[in-house]
């Protein structure tokens, strides 16, 4: 027969073992949770946020275009410089021009940069940075064209067919100034190069497009010229989703890059002074 003291000691030992077992199980569960990466997901999210994705249309030299498999140009380099300034990664997503704003507003891209002009229509969908470059819309015609200046397009004597790249400010201007006023019609193309090809084939009477790619297209296609008078002058800026936290960050970096001469150096690399 067990003594009272022995029974009492046995009870104490059982309680001690139960407590030790419970403590061991709790410790094991905590270790398991840590090992499963309970704290690793935020790191993954942080990594995802550290890459800026620039939506563009890489058919707009010298702002964005392909050299082999690589997208280069003014916007590509300025975008990369902004990402570097912010300590973030950088990727470029190439798409049709009129898909850029939807990509930005849906969150598929961090911002849009494609020789894009600030307009009232676009401001309804996105916010813009400060301007980083000046753009000039010009008119490309064939060398034997009857269109001798921009005013000829608004004279109303002839109804011209205007070629433009879909969604660009050239498209907007030609639509507002010519098509809506019933002074002519507008033919829209996915790429500026396609509009120029249509001009060489006699399918359109002229092309309204930015001055810099216009010079590239004229140099590459014999028999074309740019009218001496500009169609319009404009400022290029970066677009963001409405109220995006990135707007202030990117615009701050852009201001610094403009102030220290980086942006102008990049522009001068692609556009020679005339």
How would you describe the overall organization of this protein?
The structure is a single chain. The chain is globular, with a radius of gyration of 31 Å. The chain folds into three domains: 1-49; 51-132 and 237-270, D-Maltodextrin-Binding Protein, domain 2; 135-234, Periplasmic binding protein-like II (D-Maltodextrin-Binding Protein, domain 2), CATH 3.40.190. The protein contains ten helices and 13 strands. The longest helix is centred in the N-terminal third of the chain and has 32 residues, at 4-35. The strands form four sheets. Strands 7, 8, 9, 10, 11 and 12 form a six-stranded mixed beta sheet that branches. The chain has a three-stranded parallel beta sheet with strand order 4-1-5. The chain has a two-stranded antiparallel sheet with strand order 2-3. Helix 6 links the parallel strand 8 and strand 9 (184-189). The chain has helices at 4-35, 41-49, 74-86, 100-105, 120-123, 169-179, 192-200, 211-220, 246-259, 262-270, and strands at residues 51-56, 65-67, 70-72, 89-94, 111-112, 126-128, 133-142, 160-165, 184-189, 206-210, 224-226, 232-236, 239-241. It has 274 residues and is α/β, with parallel strands linked by helices.
């Amino acid at each position: 027969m067990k003594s009272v003291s022995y029974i009492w000691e046995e009870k104490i030992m059982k309680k001690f073992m139960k407590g030790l077992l419970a403590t061991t199980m709790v410790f094991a569960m905590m270790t398991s949770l840590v090992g499963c990466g309970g704290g690793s997901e935020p790191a993954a999210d942080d990594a995802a946020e550290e890459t800026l994705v620039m939506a563009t249309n890489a058919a707009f030299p010298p702002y964005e275009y392909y050299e082999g498999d690589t997208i280069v140009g003014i916007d590509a380099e300025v975008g990369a410089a902004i990402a570097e300034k912010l300590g973030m990664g950088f990727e470029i997503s190439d798409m049709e021009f009129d898909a850029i704003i939807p990509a930005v507003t849906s969150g598929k891209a961090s911002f849009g940069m494609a020789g894009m002009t600030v307009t009232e229509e676009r401001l309804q969908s996105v916010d813009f940075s400060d301007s980083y470059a000046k753009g000039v819309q010009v008119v490309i015609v064939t060398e034997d064209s009857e269109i001798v200046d921009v005013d000829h397009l608004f004279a109303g004597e002839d109804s011209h067919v205007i070629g433009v790249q879909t969604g660009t400010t050239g498209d907007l201007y030609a639509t507002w100034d010519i098509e809506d006023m019933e002074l002519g019609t507008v033919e829209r193309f996915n790429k500026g190069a396609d509009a120029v090809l249509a001009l060489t084939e006699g399918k359109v009477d002229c092309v309204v497009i930015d001055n810099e790619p216009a010079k590239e297209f004229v140099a590459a296609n014999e028999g074309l010229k740019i009218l001496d008078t500009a169609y319009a002058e404009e400022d290029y800026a970066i677009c963001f989703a409405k109220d995006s936290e990135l707007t202030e960050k990117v615009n701050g970096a852009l201001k610094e890059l403009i102030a220290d001469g980086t942006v102008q150096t990049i522009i001068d690399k692609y556009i020679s002074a005339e």
